[in-house]
């Protein structure tokens, strides 16, 4: 897949969330989300901050390095969310749209082999934009859950599914654990009915089911027991209980619902 295709899917994913939040009233913007201490506005503020910094990472790497070090030496949420918490919903929505436009304009200059410095190791352009798409979708899920909205899944989940698969090792490295050597086959059904397959076909352990559920688990938005995934094997089960496809300190997803 070409970087321009990933960018198009990123923009479509952002717009899908925009279609939801644009219709919220002031009270709904203040509703708590599954992320402790964050309301709906905070989820959009978070996306705005990192979309703008992603644009900066592409257009001015030195300025991005300065911004990154400032963030790492700060109180975290105070820096990333503080300015946006002072905005009205209309102001915040406009800021998010402006940040998305900045990112889209910057990303249009990327080639398939471009590397971008980010928080941690540098990333290839397609992986970089895939990470932004994943963030828009995952934080969008928090918004959807908070306001009781409906968001139709799309085959853009292919990006997140692949990311979820290739970050199995990261899940363990990030926890200071040995990476399992047992291969796991992942067979997913896309929203359009396509079959997405990852891993060796002859693996004894497997994860089979809807791509949506696999994405919800690997982004830590659902516990595996609250999905229709069929998990075969101890190593596969352990992965799904620990899965974390995103960067940052090791964290645990939600517990299974009673």
Can you tag this structure with a few keywords?
258 residues; alpha+beta; Four Helix Bundle (Hemerythrin (Met), subunit A); Nonspecific Lipid-transfer Protein, Chain A; four-stranded mixed sheet; two-stranded antiparallel sheet; 11 helices; 6 strands; 54% helix; 11% strand
Task: Indicate the CATH class of the largest domain.
Answer: Mainly Alpha
Radius of gyration: 18 Å
Query: Beta-strand percentage?
Result: 5-15%
CATH architecture of the largest domain: Up-down Bundle
The succession of helices and strands, N to C, reads: HHHHHHEEHHHEEEHEH
**Low-pLDDT residue spans:** none
User: What is the typical, i.e. mean, pLDDT?
Assistant: 95
Structure description:
- By secondary structure, this protein is α+β, with helices and mostly antiparallel strands.
- The chain has two domains: 3-147, Up-down Bundle (Four Helix Bundle (Hemerythrin (Met), subunit A)); 157-242, Nonspecific Lipid-transfer Protein, Chain A, CATH 3.30.1050.
- Helices cover 54% and strands 11% of the residues.
- It has eleven helices and six strands.
- A hairpin with a 5-residue loop joins strand 3 (184-189) and strand 4.
- Helix 1 packs parallel to helix 7 (125-147), helix 3 (40-59) packs across helix 4 and helix 3 packs antiparallel against helix 7 (125-147).
- The chain is globular.
- The termini are far apart.
């Amino acid at each position: 897949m070409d970087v321009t295709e990933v960018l198009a899917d990123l923009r479509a994913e952002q717009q899908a969330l925009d279609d939801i939040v644009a219709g919220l009233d002031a009270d709904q913007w203040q509703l708590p989300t599954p992320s402790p201490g964050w309301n709906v506005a905070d989820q959009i503020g978070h996306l705005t901050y990192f979309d703008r910094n992603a644009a900066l990472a592409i257009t001015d790497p030195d300025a991005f390095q300065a911004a990154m070090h400032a963030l790492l030496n700060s109180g975290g949420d105070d820096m990333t969310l503080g300015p946006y918490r002072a905005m009205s919903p209309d102001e915040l929505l406009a800021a998010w749209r402006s940040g998305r436009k900045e990112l889209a304009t910057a990303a249009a200059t990327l080639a398939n082999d471009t590397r971008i410095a980010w928080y941690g190791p540098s990333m290839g352009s397609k992986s970089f934009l895939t990470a932004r798409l994943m963030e828009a979708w995952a934080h969008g899920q928090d918004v959807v859950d908070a306001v009781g909205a409906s968001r139709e899944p799309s085959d853009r989940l292919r990006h997140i599914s692949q990311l979820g698969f290739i970050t199995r090792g990261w899940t363990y490295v990030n926890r200071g654990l040995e990476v399992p050597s047992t291969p796991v086959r992942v067979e997913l059904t896309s929203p359009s009915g396509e079959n997405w397959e990852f891993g060796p076909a002859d693996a004894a352990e497997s994860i089979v089911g809807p791509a949506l559920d696999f994405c919800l688990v690997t982004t830590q938005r659902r516990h595996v027991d609250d999905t229709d995934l069929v998990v075969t094997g101890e190593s596969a089960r352990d992965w799904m209980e620990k899965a974390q496809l995103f960067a940052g300190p090791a964290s645990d997803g939600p517990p299974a619902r009673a």
